[in-house]
Amino acid sequence: MNNKKINLIAVDMGYGHQRAAYPLLDLAGGESLTLNNYEGIPDWEKDYWINNLKSYEKISRFKKVPFLGGLVFSVMDYFQKILPLYPFRDLSRPTFQQKYFYSFIRKGLGKDLVDKLNPEKLPFVTTFFVAAQAAEYHNYQGEVYCIICDTDASRAWAPLNPKNSKIKYFVPSEKVKKRFLMYGLPENNLIVTGFPLPKENIGTQKEILKSDLLSRINNLDPQKEYQSEYRGILDDEFLNIEKKPDRPLTITFAVGGAGAQKEIGVTIIKKLSEQIKSKKLIVNLVAGSRSEVKDYFFEEIKNLEIVEGVNVVFNANKTEYFKEFNQVLRVTDILWTKPSELSFYSGLGLPIMISSPVGSQEDFNRDWLISVGGGIDSPSPEFVDQWLPPMLASGRLARAAMDGYLNAEQMGTYNIEKYFHKN
């Protein structure tokens, strides 16, 4: 396409890498490639990635098995562990995980894709570190960029020889920039942009974001506790716009890419079924692109005899799923999910009800969410009918919505676009 400014590459593993790529489709002329599943990928590479993904998903689901599941997962997680940020020190020494991926890159992993894209010489922009490292190793002719998909990242995301690397990184914060300086990256290879959030949830001047947030605040603060105490902040942000709730309180529960924690969604609708049936509450259960999770949700909804008020969000095509999910978020008041890349969506003024982290990077995401005020550790879902009403009455969730909006970056997509339009 004529307006194509970059080659955009993600990886089809869970949702995080493709969700980060989706907002940048305009830059890529509407197309994104996946490192592990593109037309013409060599059979051995495809098999390699399929086996890796199966192993990860199996271990993620196995984690629920008492003792043994946690032990097996902790061994896997050890190799992708993120070390504490302080004290400031040299963390440039390569890790086992990094050496493992580079051993396959040397064998040709990613070379076919790099060779296919080389003639265009467009910037190679990826949301997956292995793709960036493969592009550099196999002598991609254009510039290589990597987008960090979490609030912090392990050493594996940085190149094997960072001081001599040409890979540039779009990082979500100054904190992550400091992290990559410790990994040995030159400062001029680190560009602080924020995480790329969907433009359809923001608007060019945040007009969509603010309109949606104002509706949300009214639903999350039924007793006006937050609005009374922080009237000045609200007036500054919304210019005294009054907006009455135009829908019931809406909770969206999103399952992770491996299908883990889907039982929480069923517990939510079971414990809040009376409010749902009386049309005081809407629940969206997000199955993503996983048909088995969709079928599980529909079966449980049927068992609970809930006719309306519970929606299942599903699309086998991930790009279409992201579009549908982003529209659902516009009429969502509480986003309940594990602290994945969706942690950044607190910047849209969505209070995150945090379920248990899965993996080291999600521990760091959870800590970041708490630090910006946009997330709340979920009390037991078994008692959601008891703890949710007082939490709403206190204005606590409204405060989380505003804290996320005020303290998290929203303009990452626009910042990345400006970079490429300028360069």
Please summarize what this structure is.
The protein has 423 residues and is α/β, with parallel strands linked by helices. The chain has 18 helices and twelve strands.
Strand order in the sheet with the most strands: 2-1-3-4-5-6
Kindly provide the name of the CATH class of the largest domain: Alpha Beta
CATH superfamily of the largest domain: Glycogen Phosphorylase B
Give helix % range: 40-55%
Please outline the major beta sheet: 6 strands, parallel
Amount of beta strand: 5-15%
Low-confidence stretches: 75-79
CATH architecture group name of the largest domain: 3-Layer(aba) Sandwich
SSE pattern, N- to C-terminal: EHEHHHHEHEEHEHHHEHHEHEHEEHEHHH
In round numbers, the mean pLDDT is 91
Number of strands: 12
Shape: globular
| CATH fold naming of the largest domain | Rossmann fold
